[in-house]
Amino acid sequence: MRPLHRFLRTLRDDLDAAHRHDPAARSLLEVALAYPGVHAIWVYRLAHHMWAIPLLRLPARLVSQAARAATGIEIHPGARIGERLFIDHGMGVVIGETAEVGDDVVLFHGATLGGRSMKRGKRHPTLGDRVVVGAGAKILGPVWLGDDVQVGANAVVITDVPTGAVAVGVPAKIRRRGTQVPFDVEVDDPAIYI
Question: What residue range is the signal peptide (predicted)?
């Protein structure tokens, strides 16, 4: 009974994360029925469990591709995703095979956690907890983003980003929160730097 309870709790946590992060969400039922980011995450969770069994790797890829066709979001079943990931809008989001995503992460549409190499091994990014990745941002290669990092819209991140920093631009420049923000406003939107 415990695995079923844990599975149901995870599904509920995914719903709650989307409802909490999206001010347009009116109810958990609306989120469950109409949010492609939630659907993609749920299918990923199934495909990821299948991926752990070598004989089910091909079916896992097929399941993930069906989710991609339905949602416009591609999550490789080999990726490691923490709890309460929220993918807002979702269209065009790509999460590669060796990507690792922490807890309470938010990805906006068009975000890519991609590779820069065709070699086997770790080739996708690792994101800490509470990371926010803006629309169209690309995080490429086996880079590490610390906890509480914010990545601005359309930024291209190819180097590590320390905990609590903001990355904006092409290629992304790292800025510490509070050091270059006019009028001492609290940063909650990386677009303030663009």
Answer: none
